[in-house]
Amino acid sequence: MSTARPQQPDTPAAASEQPSSAPAALGIQVEGVSKSYRRGQRVLSDVNLHIRAGETFGIIGPNGAGKTTLFGCMLGLLWPDSGTVRIAGLPPDHLEVRRLTGYLPERLTFDQGLTARQFLAFHHSLAERPAHERHQEVETHLTLVGLDKAMWDRDTRKFSRGMLQRLGLAQALVGQPRFLFLDEPTLGIDPEGVLHLRTLLRDIKSRGVTVIINSHDLAQLEKVCDRVAFFRAGRVEALEDLGSPSSSITRHVLQVRWAGTQTLAPEQLATVAKEVDATLLDTTEDSLRFSVEDDWGASRLLRALLQAGLPVASASREEGRLERFFQPNGGRNP
Ligand SMILES: Nc1ncnc2c1ncn2[C@@H]1O[C@H](COP(=O)(O)OP(=O)(O)OP(=O)(O)O)[C@@H](O)[C@H]1O
Fold it and tell me: Domain ABC transporter spans what residues (predicted)?
């Protein structure tokens, strides 16, 4: 995030409001948020979102869509021109919210020459965790993010990008947040680290933490998110529940190949597909692509194709359902 939040004399006074506990169950409420950096150039336009407590929520969209700016507004680092953000019912710059929030920024700075252990101990103290638990909790979190023990007492200026990313994640977690904001968490991480992160996110979710991920890594988002908001030109263009069978984006794409040279006419294929609630997407020289609701839908389609006389040789499901958001028709009505 490149812009600091300007001084807001009329924002709710963070230090003066001191509730004993904020109701994290309220989740995150973004209402009518608009933001410009320069006059006439709107980066966010009337954004409305409710991120439910305990869900893992993804934010995707093309470069410059306003995702990082929204993150800044949700974290109380940028101030919207209009609209409000509430985290657990409180403004994002409220001290209580800061205690509840962990943040992994896209670009981390580790220029103080601290070791990983010292860096994390510093953030443990910033998060006001009990001093007598510091040693143990620092080690627990270094282990949790899979940072090699041999690196714990090394100068972080000598760390690789992936090691810094793991340490950054430990920093976001060490305060035991109820809301975890991750900006491009897989950046620079090797495949083993990505798998580790996925397991870690599942574990964090099982503890009821609300996780918000801003990422271009569609495959990862698809695997860990409950819902995803697709951003374009500062607006939420689509909000998809990845677990819902009725979501158009969560329909599966099935690629079918046939034996021999003879296939059926496209009109006939489309009719057969329609009868079993599938849709013919396109045909190539040696394969057909269909949209089906789920695995049962795929099974019904294959049976119907065989019955219609297509010598089906293989069928496979395409990965990358979220990629269809980036297709010209937004993945809708395939
Ligand atoms: N500090 C700033 N000053 C002026 N314009 C800015 C500033 N920060 C971002 N912008 C502009 O706001 C728009 C949205 O930027 P933002 O970083 O929020 O998008 P993004 O969706 O996160 O992009 P990316 O995927 O590339 O990270 C862009 O046109 C960007 O140039």
Answer: 28-258
Q: How far apart are CA 42 and CA 49, in angstroms?
A: 18
The protein residue with its alpha carbon nearest to ligand 1, atom 16, reads 66
State the pLDDT at residue 16: 34
Q: Are residues 303 and 157 in the same domain?
A: no
| Contact residues of ligand 1, CB 6 A cut-off | 2-3, 37, 43, 61, 63-69
pTM of the model: 0.76
User: Beta-carbon neighbour count of residue 325 at 10 Å?
Assistant: 21
- Residue ending a domain, among 241, 273, 293, is 241
CATH of the domain at 263: 3.30.70.980
The minimum-distance atom of ligand 1 relative to the CA of 68 is 22
- What digits encode the pLDDT tens for the residues 145-175? 999 999 999 999 889 888 898 999 999 999 9
> How many angstroms separate the alpha carbon of residue 313 from the centre of ligand 1?
48
Predicted confidence at residue 1, as pLDDT, reads: 37
Per the structure, the complete domain to which residue 102 belongs is given by: 24-241
**Main-chain phi, psi angles of 157, to 5 degrees:** -70, -15
Per-residue pLDDT at 320? 59
232 Cα–ligand 1 center, Å? 12
Pair (93, 234) in one structural domain: yes
Which ranges constitute the DSSP H helices of the chain?
67-74, 95-100, 116-126, 134-144, 161-173, 191-206, 218-224, 266-275, 295-307
261/192 same-domain check: no
Where the chain has pLDDT below 70, the residues are: 1-22, 244-251, 262, 319-334
Q: Whose CA is nearest to atom 6 of ligand 1?
A: 37
Does 219 lie in the same domain as 267? no
**Structure tokens, 302:** 């294959």
CA of 321 from ligand 1 middle (Å) equals: 26
What is the reported pLDDT for 92? 94
pLDDT at 6: 39
Q: Which of 296, 297, 279 is nearest to 288 (CA)?
A: 279
